[in-house]
């Protein structure tokens, strides 16, 4: 259900050892990548492995099928749940979304086709969202008697603001890719069928930079987002100190002085 593929960063070339960009491909075609209990558990386990791997510098989340990125929760599975089973599944699904959200390296979603409900929430859990022109985006949960529970009420509001998020969530309406770009749900809009290529290109560019600096920049941004400015600046200062005295900083300065590409120690 989840394919894992390694790609090189922009400075690693096309050959040699597996690269530092990891592509996670959703591949459950019979259900348009709907997230079942087993699928959620697989996402959780895989993201935990990636989070603990210091060689990973960026992650791309995509689909093996152009028709859908992911249509959200597996409602056919849920239809037979007791209340106790529903709560058990809730814990499992929360871990899956948090696994993507808490990746210590940048994550890029490549969306083609439908990204509905929990599918859009998976994409919103990434740091950047690239969409093909034919993508359809929605958080339609209120239409089936629930609310977005994979981070949608929080992540969408932080991304686009209260009123735009309220319009999407309260109505459950579907957005085309262009409207999604206009509202700020989508970061980059590309030709239909090319979202994956663009997302991999972005990830390769990110992964060519200092892994220590990129990880610390993401950490400072995420930790500071929910604080006031003064607290955020203190968080930034701590992240700066952790980076400035790293071996990556020493290598970066030396490479600049010697007019060569840096060979990042990653420490």
UniProtKB/TrEMBL annotation:
Keyword Signal among record annotations: no
Membrane-crossing segments per the record: none
Gene Ontology MF, one: enoyl-CoA hydratase activity
Keywords, sorted A to Z: Lipid metabolism, Lyase
CDD domains cross-referenced by the UniProt entry: crotonase-like
Enzyme class: lyase
Catalyzed chemical reaction(s): a (3S)-3-hydroxyacyl-CoA = a (2E)-enoyl-CoA + H2O; a 4-saturated-(3S)-3-hydroxyacyl-CoA = a (3E)-enoyl-CoA + H2O
E.C. no: 4.2.1.17
InterPro entries assigned: ClpP/crotonase-like_dom_sf (IPR029045), Enoyl-CoA_hyd/isom_CS (IPR018376), Enoyl-CoA_hydra/iso (IPR001753), Enoyl-CoA_hydra_C (IPR014748)
One Pfam entry name: ECH_1
Keyword Metal-binding applies: no
Highest taxon, organism lineage: Bacteria
SUPFAM superfamilies: ClpP/crotonase
Biological process per Gene Ontology, one example term: fatty acid beta-oxidation
Residue span of region Disordered: 1-21
Family membership: Belongs to the enoyl-CoA hydratase/isomerase family.
PANTHER family given in the database record: (7AS)-7A-METHYL-1,5-DIOXO-2,3,5,6,7,7A-HEXAHYDRO-1H-INDENE-CARBOXYL-COA HYDROLASE, ENOYL-COA HYDRATASE-RELATED
Designated name of the protein: enoyl-CoA hydratase
């Amino acid at each position: 259900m989840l394919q894992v593929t390694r790609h090189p960063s922009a400075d690693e070339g096309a050959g040699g050892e597996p690269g530092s960009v990891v592509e996670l491909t959703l591949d459950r075609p019979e259900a348009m990548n709907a997230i079942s209990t087993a699928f959620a558990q697989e996402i959780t386990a895989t993201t935990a492995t990636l989070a603990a791997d210091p060689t990973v510098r960026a992650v791309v989340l995509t689909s093996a099928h152009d028709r859908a990125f992911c249509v959200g929760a597996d409602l056919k599975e849920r239809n037979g749940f007791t209340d106790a089973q529903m709560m058990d599944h809730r814990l499992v699904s929360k871990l899956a979304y948090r696994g993507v959200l808490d990746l210590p390296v940048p994550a890029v979603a490549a969306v083609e086709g439908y990204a509905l409900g929990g599918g859009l929430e998976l994409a919103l859990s990434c740091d950047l969202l690239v969409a093909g022109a034919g993508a359809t985006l929605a958080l339609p949960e209120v239409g089936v008697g629930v609310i977005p529970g994979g981070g949608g009420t929080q992540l969408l509001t932080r991304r686009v603001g209260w009123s735009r998020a309220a319009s999407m969530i309260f109505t459950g309406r579907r957005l085309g890719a262009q409207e999604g770009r206009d509202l700020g749900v989508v970061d980059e809009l590309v030709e239909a069928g090319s979202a994956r290529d663009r997302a991999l290109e972005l990830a390769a560019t990110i992964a060519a930079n200092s892994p220590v600096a990129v990880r610390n920049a993401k950490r400072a941004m995420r930790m500071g987002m929910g604080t006031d400015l003064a607290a955020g600046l203190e968080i930034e200062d701590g992240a700066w100190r952790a980076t400035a005295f790293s071996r990556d900083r020493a290598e970066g300065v030396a490479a600049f002085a010697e007019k060569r590409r840096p060979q990042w120690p990653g420490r």
